[in-house]
Amino acid sequence: MRLAVVSTAIPPASSGQARVLGQVLDGLDALFLSDAAQPGAGTAPLAPARFLLAPRLGSGRVNNLAGLAVTVFARAGEIARRARAHRAEAILGCSGSPFDPPAAWLAAERLRLPFGAWLFDDPVLQWPAADGTPYRVFARFWERLWARRSVPLAPNEVMAADFARRNPRSRPPVLVRNPAANAAFGDPAAPWPRDAAAPLRVLYTGSVYAAQADAVRNLVTALADEPGFALALRTPQGAAELAAQGIAGVAILPPLPHAEALAEQQRADILFLPLAFDAAIPEVIRSSAPAKAAEYLASGRPVLVHAPPGAYVNRLFHGAGLVVDRPEPLLLLAALRRLRDDAALRGGLLAEAALRAPGFRVAASRAAMLAALGGERR
Cβ neighbours of residue 124 under 8 Å, at least 6 residues apart? Predict the structure, then answer.
């Protein structure tokens, strides 16, 4: 299938969204359209967004909304031209901006092509209601239009349910899971711990910002006077940036290329998956499906999840990892000690994770996406 894909992040960028797109669409004839794109084979840049129609008039709400609307219609024309030249058979519009999904939908309508709305994050609720911007209102206006004439692709059941509840007259979302690369699948029978003479290595790989910060702080607090565990953060954030978020006294390591990061995850004793308890957009935290979640599930290593009640990651790791859904450092420390001391518990968690992980193979996600779009050819 020849595809035109509109996204704020595209391969080979290191973000989770770009990585998922690269894995699922690998081998397909996909043209990536983005304002982050550099001209080259398989990519095409879009004109910069206009957040204000007339900058000289200031940043008022009407001026902001008008700029966003102009961006939608202008991008729709760009996308249609590029998709036609590519001879696309379907157009995918990815969440991440308030204007890309509606612009991609308008282009698909113009060309009479199937439109897939790929919901990496909630396309409406990812914009905070209290930040003074009109993005949530703008995104919801357009969602009412494109939802009924789209194939929604959701990474998990929580996101799918939220979208269906808000759009009861749209077709049910198709689950296209954020997958784990084949190299992410480790051996649950690998030696544990890796080094019996050293503290147990607890590892987190990825960015640390508002969506994780308070959960990471809780673990740092839990381990402050516990010499049996050593926390390492493999993150693009440096010490100063982490200190500004209240995170200090922990090993900070630079990010690795993806393949090397997967290998390091499989060398850890415990993997840590945090999501914030005190976030400006708790709805997005609840439905979040971090790309690393499937990697952790497949790693063959014990996983400690620290996320608010109702979060999708808690459901994913229930019975396949230890979940602490209260922001209490002492509970985190108790969970780590259980993982350390109870071999039967570890074995049971790893066995259940090994049963679930194949559902997150790249091939399964690709097949689900292609089946959904193939069934909508006009």
Answer: 136, 139, 140, 143, 166
Q: Compute the distance between CA of residue 53 and CA of residue 69 in angstroms, rounded to an integer.
A: 9
Residues 279 and 353 placed together within one structural domain of the fold: yes
- Do 110 and 186 reside in the same domain of the chain? no
> In the predicted model, is pLDDT for residue 54 greater than 90?
no
Q: What CATH number does the domain containing 123 carry?
A: 3.40.50.2000
Structure tokens that stand for 178 in this block? 């954020």
Q: If you average pLDDT over every residue of the chain, what do you get?
A: 94
Q: Which domain holds residue 300?
A: 182-360
Residue among 205, 220, 245 at smallest CA distance from 327: 220
Taking alpha carbons only, the member of 132, 70, 126 closest to residue 97 is 126
In whole angstroms, give the CA distance from residue 366 to residue 372: 10
Q: How far is the C-alpha of 191 from the C-alpha of 350, rounded, in Å?
A: 13
Task: Using the predicted structure, report yes or no on whether residue 206 has a pLDDT greater than 90.
Answer: yes
Q: In terms of domains, do 103 and 116 share one?
A: yes
Conformation bin of residue 80: beta by default, left when phi > 0, alpha when psi is -120 to 50: alpha
Q: What is the pLDDT of residues 169-203, one digit of tens each?
A: 999 999 999 999 999 999 999 999 999 999 999 99
pTM score: 0.92
- Looking at the fold, whether 135 and 159 belong to one and the same domain comes out as yes
Band the pLDDT of 356: cuts 50, 70, 90. Answer: very high
Distance CA 112, CA 218 (A): 51
pLDDT score recorded for residue 378: 46
Residues 158 and 250 in one domain: no
Count of domains forming the chain: 2
What is the rounded average pLDDT of the residues 322-342?
98
**Edge-to-edge strands, sheet with 229-234:** 251-253, 229-234, 200-205, 270-274, 303-306, 322-324
